[in-house]
Design goal:
CATH architecture of the largest domain in chain A: 3-Layer(bba) Sandwich
CATH class of the largest domain in chain A: Alpha Beta
Order of helices and strands of chain A: EHEHEEEEEHEHEEEEEEHEH
CATH superfamily of chain B: Glutaredoxin
Shape of chain B: globular
Order of helices and strands of chain B: EHEHEHEEH
CATH topology of the largest domain in chain A: FAD/NAD(P)-binding domain
Distance between the termini of chain B: 18 Å
Oligomer: heterodimer
CATH superfamily of the largest domain in chain A: FAD/NAD(P)-binding domain
Strand content of chain B: 25-35%
CATH topology of chain B: Glutaredoxin
Number of domains of chain B: 1
Largest sheet of chain B: 5 strands, mixed
Bound molecules: flavin-adenine dinucleotide
Distance between the termini of chain A: 18 Å
Number of helices of chain B: 4
Strand content of chain A: 15-25%
Largest sheet of chain A: 7 strands, mixed
Strand order of the largest sheet of chain B: 1-3-2-4-5
């Protein structure tokens, strides 16, 4: 059992973990990759670096710093689902963890499908959450967008409701093994409406559907928050208190996934602030 | 207090209601719905006498859910004189919910 499991190894997650370790809590950081900083080679507005540094350098020294202080940092591991509460059960592509507190620091989430009809049909047959909406499509024709472990996780939920599921990888190669279900790899071009979703068009075909579930790429903080019943605003940012708690006891969020200034300095500050509140929360729970 | 709405009492409680009605379409297994529950309860107390607040369990009331094309829960709908005037999908804070319901 961990005291705190941090999802994300960017400036917010690592900064929080470093403080939490100093509070003598048992902390683990799980980071899929280099996050937003993996995309930039030139940072020159962050405090204390005379010459520009690359994002990769900064992230790597963050990992190393946390590890030197005794934090467990698993890079390359992907969190797929967070279940239960107090303790949370965190499922990754490798194993399952139990933690009293979870801190979401997964960075900004991107809109997952940029095709015609996507915005207007949301909530009208397009869903982001199998466990929330799958039941409404019992024995109906379900489409599922995705190509990796996150898709597989949603498939596991959805197949309890219908056997009529078609997977759309939207141009991506299928990265996992799927049996029993049809897999279409052509890119999706348009979602068909107009009132509610009736199907979709790929470059070659048209498919009739009653619902389309989205589980493309890696789940982000808002995917987790939505499934857990935490408040997410229309910009897909997690709503947090001034101490970075959510409305779910023991669930915290920090950094870009909470919106505001999307900069390293703010993410570092969020992480530090959240760690203080988490420490306090765990103290009051044990006393 | 909220009222349990079924296909039996729908006509009387919603269609013929003299005051506006809010309906919360929900289900037992939906965690966001569980978080919305107390907010809906709160609204029903706060607006007692001015707005009627009902809950529709989509598992038990598939017909009603179908009729209003509920495809994602929680969904909250507002009715005035039996006509739907607003529909809000997902978990929202009380203030945001009321604003988007036009109340
Ligand atoms: C091109 C570019 C240039 C930028 N330049 C600057 C700059 O010059 N100065 C500046 O201050 N800011 C800059 N930024 C912004 C800065 O990168 C972000 O504000 C900052 O990285 C946010 O930190 P974070 O910890 O919240 O998220 P991130 O740094 O994005 O970290 C997110 C972490 O979560 C992990 N993750 C996500 N989902 C999962 C999952 N399901 N399972 C496991 N791990 C997961 C990621 O792998 C990563 O480790 C730039 C951003 C971009 C994209």
């Amino acid at each position: 059992m961990y005291d705190v499991l941090v999802v994300g190894g960017g400036p917010a997650g690592i900064s929080a973990a470093v403080y939490l370790q100093r509070f003598k809590l048992k902390v683990i950081v799980i980071a899929k990759d280099y996050g937003a900083l993996g995309q930039t080679t030139h940072i020159e507005n962050y405090y204390g670096f005379e010459a520009p540094i690359t994002g990769k350098q900064l992230v790597e020294s963050g990992f190393a710093q946390a590890r030197r202080l005794g934090v467990e940092v698993n890079v390359g591991e992907e969190v797929l689902a967070i279940n239960g509460s107090e303790p949370f059960i965190v499922k990754t592509n490798i194993k399952e963890y139990h933690a009293k507190v979870v801190l979401l620091a997964t960075g900004m989430s991107r809109p997952s499908l940029r095709v015609k009809g996507f915005t207007t049909l949301q909530g009208k047959g397009i869903s982001f959450c199998g466990i929330c909406d799958g039941f409404l499509y019992r024995n109906k024709r379900i489409g599922l967008v995705g190509s990796g472990d996150f898709m597989l996780e949603e498939l596991d939920v959805l197949k309890n409701f219908s056997k009529n599921i078609t997977i759309f990888t939207h141009g991506e190669p299928l990265k996992v093994d799927v049996k029993e279900f049809a897999v279409i790899t052509e890119p999706i071009i348009e979602l068909l409406g107009p009132e509610t979703l009736t199907g979709l068009k790929t470059s070659n075909h048209q498919y009739e559907l009653d619902a389309l579930f989205i589980a493309a790429g890696t789940p982000s903080a808002s995917d987790f928050a939505m499934r857990m019943g935490a408040f997410v605003n229309p910009k897909n940012e997690i709503e947090v208190s001034p101490t970075f708690s959510t409305n779910i006891p023991g669930l915290y969020a920090a950094g870009d996934c909470t919106g505001g200034l999307l900069q390293i300095s703010k993410a570092v500050r969020d992480g530090a602030e959240a760690s203080l509140a988490i420490n306090k929360y765990l103290k009051t729970k044990t006393s | 207090m909220t009222i349990k709405i079924t296909s039996e009492n729908f006509q009387k409680e919603v269609m013929e209601s003299p005051i506006p009605v809010i309906l919360d379409f929900w289900a037992e297994w939906c965690r966001p719905c569980q978080m919305l529950g107390p907010i809906i309860e709160d609204i029903s107390n706060e607006l007692a006498g001015k707005v009627k607040v009902g809950k529709v369990n989509v598992d038990e009331e598939g017909l009603l859910a179908n009729q209003y094309r509920i495809s994602s829960i929680p969904t909250v709908m507002a009715f005035k004189q039996g006509k739907p005037t607003a529909q809000v999908i997902g978990l929202l804070r009380k203030e945001d919910l009321l604003k988007r319901l036009g109340l």
